[in-house]
Structures are given as C-alpha cells and as structure tokens.
Amino acid sequence: MPAKDVFHKVVKSALEKDGWTITDDPLSLQLEDDQVFIDLGAERLIAAQRDHEKIAVEIKSFLAPSSLSEFHTALGQFLNYRIVLREKQPERVLYLAVNLETYNDFFSRQLPKLSIQEYQLKMIIFDPVQEEIVKWTK
C-alpha cells in the first residue's frame, strides 16, 4: 500500500467538515492485473434527491523542488485513476486535492490551466491550516 500524502489527514478532516462521509481510506480498485489506490473515497446524502453523491479524491502536496515535474506525475496518475474508476465505479467522480497556496501559485500558470481545461480535471482546493475546503472546481 502506498504512503499517505502529507496532507492526507487535513483533506480527510476538511471533507468531513463539508458533510462527506469517508467510505474508503484508501479506495482500492483492481483492474485485471493492476491495482490502484486512490487516497480517499467519500459520499454524502443528497437530501432533495434521496440519493448519494460519491467521489474519489487523490491528494497531492507539490512539495518537491519541481512543481512541473510533480504535476506531470499527478496528471498521469489522475488520468489513469479516472479510467479505472470509469470501469469499476462509474458513479464516483474523481477530484485532485491541492492546498490553497499551490493552487494560487502553480495552478495559475498557463500550462496547468490549459491542462485542467483540456483534461477536464476536477479539483478540491483546501486550506491546510483551517482544515477546510476553500473551492471546488468542476
């Protein structure tokens, strides 16, 4: 099982504060010979519809010297996880969780912005100090 991201507990707490129930920590999915571990699986009841909204969350800290290199890795991982989810749990929506500082500094650059648009990345931006979700991008 892979190591947990440095912000794992923070994001888990932020999701719970936002009304989500953590169902999987990690969310393990098997696709023939390959097993993937997405950091968190969560759901919440949508009262008006009496239905459940389900998400999967991959958390990235972007603490390495090269944010661009980390982004390449995160993007590839995200796209592969989305494929596995589509096959195994198509009701879940995948999100990439990053902290507010990373979002403001790195994700404001042109390449990440264009990549988010091109690959339709959904993101959760969180405040690691307050342990709260600041923004959802869809």
Structure description:
The model has no long low-confidence stretch (mean pLDDT 93). Helix content is 35%, strand content 36%. The protein has four helices and eight strands; from the N terminus they run αβββββαβααββ. The protein is globular, with a radius of gyration of 15 Å. By secondary structure, the chain is an alpha/beta fold. The strands form two sheets. It has a six-stranded mixed sheet, with helices on both faces.
Summarize it.
The chain is an alpha/beta fold and 138 residues long. It has helices spanning 8-17, 67-88, 100-105, 110-119, and strands at 21-24, 27-31, 34-38, 40-46, 51-59, 92-99, 123-127, 132-137.
The number of strands is 8
State the oligomer: single chain
Strand content: 35-45%
- Please report the distance between the alpha carbons of the first and last residues: 29 Å
Order of helices and strands: HEEEEEHEHHEE
Q: Kindly state the percentage of residues in helix.
A: 25-40%
- Uncertain stretches of 5 or more adjacent residues: none
Q: Tally the helices.
A: 4
| Broad shape | globular
Kindly report the spatial arrangement of strands forming the biggest sheet: 1-4-5-6-7-8
- Structural class call reads alpha/beta
The main β sheet shows up as: 6 strands, mixed
Mean pLDDT: 93
How many whole angstroms does the radius of gyration measure? 15 Å
Index terms:
two-stranded antiparallel ribbon, globular, 138 residues, 6-stranded mixed β-sheet, single chain, 4 helices, alpha/beta
Question: What's the topology here?
Answer:
Blueprint: H1 8-17, E1 21-24, E2 27-31, E3 34-38, E4 40-46, E5 51-59, H2 67-88, E6 92-99, H3 100-105, H4 110-119, E7 123-127, E8 132-137
Parallel strand pairs: 5-6, 6-7
Antiparallel strand pairs: 1-4, 2-3, 4-5, 7-8
